[in-house]
């Protein structure tokens, strides 16, 4: 996240805030300008009062460009659900920021668009599975509960599990269709990730029934990536977003950088040189892990980028660059009606 500032006093301000911590100016994030503006000069999202959405609207729609992608909201009959939904939407706004900075579409022409169902086990009466289908991302509201998410992280032996991580992974499935599935890159994908024609359902069933949990750490970024080529792609796509977003944050830090690193950090989302991206990422990842350890915390990025994993990340980067070629105008997101979970 590029450093943001209060429009009145110029204090550095976190992306999630709705009020300047120094001069107390009420803030609204302008999605098109990537900057805060004073709320008195903006039209706030209709969700500002309910869940603290700090984005503005500019086209007459009541919801901001992030909130309007939510098709189904959780049952708001409890304060806990409202609190958890607020956390979900806060993470989702970072995802929408990522995708916008990458210049990726939120919809496929004459096809699906990205939308979200935020559902709860209690209302549904059965366990909600977080997942993706034809652009629709379903998220279990319980993932916004820190204790519940940590319990699942330990149970599934995952080194990393966050709301934002879920969103970046699930949206990767949508972008497989956009960047790979209907393009000339499909054959290259199959050489690198494997053949996606294998039954997806059968592959996931096999994965969850495994008793032996070891896997080839040289070839895969995570254990879940071994389940199916589509999951390997989604995990890798999520890690690419982790990298460029964190480098974008690092750009504002007082770092000692050489000329090439400074050029990379001008806009990591649009950097065309993959090796330059990774050259900048390695010291940043090491630094944030050391800082976490000095505070008694786990590593912020507990992953090792082996040559095979670097190759997969390179393919994701190449697919994004390939999409950006000016062959035809990119699609805009259409509107998803917002309804409540019943």
UniProtKB/TrEMBL annotation:
<protein>
    <recommendedName>
        <fullName>Zinc-ribbon domain-containing protein</fullName>
    </recommendedName>
</protein>
<dbReference type="Pfam" id="PF10005">
    <property type="entry name" value="Zn_ribbon_DZR_6"/>
</dbReference>
<dbReference type="Pfam" id="PF15887">
    <property type="entry name" value="Peptidase_Mx"/>
</dbReference>
<feature type="domain" description="Zinc-ribbon">
    <location>
        <begin position="5"/>
        <end position="76"/>
    </location>
</feature>
<dbReference type="InterPro" id="IPR011201">
    <property type="entry name" value="Zinc-ribbon_6_bact"/>
</dbReference>
<dbReference type="InterPro" id="IPR031321">
    <property type="entry name" value="UCP012641"/>
</dbReference>
């Amino acid at each position: 996240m590029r450093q943001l500032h209060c429009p009145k006093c110029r204090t550095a301000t976190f992306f999630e805030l709705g009020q300047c911590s120094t001069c107390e100016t009420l803030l609204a994030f302008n999605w098109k300008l990537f900057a805060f503006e004073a709320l008195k000069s903006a039209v706030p999202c209709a969700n500002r009062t309910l869940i603290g959405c700090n984005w503005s609207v500019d086209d007459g729609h009541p919801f901001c460009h992030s909130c309007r992608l939510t098709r189904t909201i959780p049952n708001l009959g409890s304060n806990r659900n409202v609190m958890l939904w607020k956390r979900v939407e806060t993470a989702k706004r970072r995802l929408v920021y990522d995708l916008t900075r990458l210049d990726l579409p939120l919809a496929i022409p004459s096809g699906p668009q990205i939308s979200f169902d935020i559902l709860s086990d209690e209302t549904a009466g059965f366990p909600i599975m977080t997942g993706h289908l034809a652009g629709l991302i379903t998220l279990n509201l319980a993932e916004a509960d820190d204790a519940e998410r940590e319990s699942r992280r330990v149970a599934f032996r995952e080194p990393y599990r966050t709301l934002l991580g879920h969103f970046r992974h699930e949206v990767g499935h949508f972008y497989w269709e956009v960047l790979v599935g209907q393009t000339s890159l499909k054959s290259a994908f199959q050489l690198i990730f494997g053949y996606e024609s294998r039954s997806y359902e059968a592959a996931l069933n096999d994965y969850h029934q495994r008793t032996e949990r070891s896997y080839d750490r040289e070839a895969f970024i995570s254990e879940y990536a071994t389940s199916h080529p589509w999951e390997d792609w989604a995990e890798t796509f999520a890690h690419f977003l982790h990298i460029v977003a964190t480098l974008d944050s690092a750009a504002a830090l007082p770092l000692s950088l050489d000329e090439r690193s400074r050029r990379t950090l001008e806009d990591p989302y649009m950097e065309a040189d993959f090796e330059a991206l990774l050259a900048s990422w390695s010291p940043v990842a090491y630094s944030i892990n050391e800082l976490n350890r000095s505070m008694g915390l786990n590593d912020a990025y507990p992953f090792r980028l082996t040559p095979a994993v670097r190759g997969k990340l390179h393919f994701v980067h190449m697919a994004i660059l390939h999409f950006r070629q000016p062959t035809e105008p990119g699609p805009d997101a259409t509107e998803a009606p917002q309804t409540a979970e019943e």
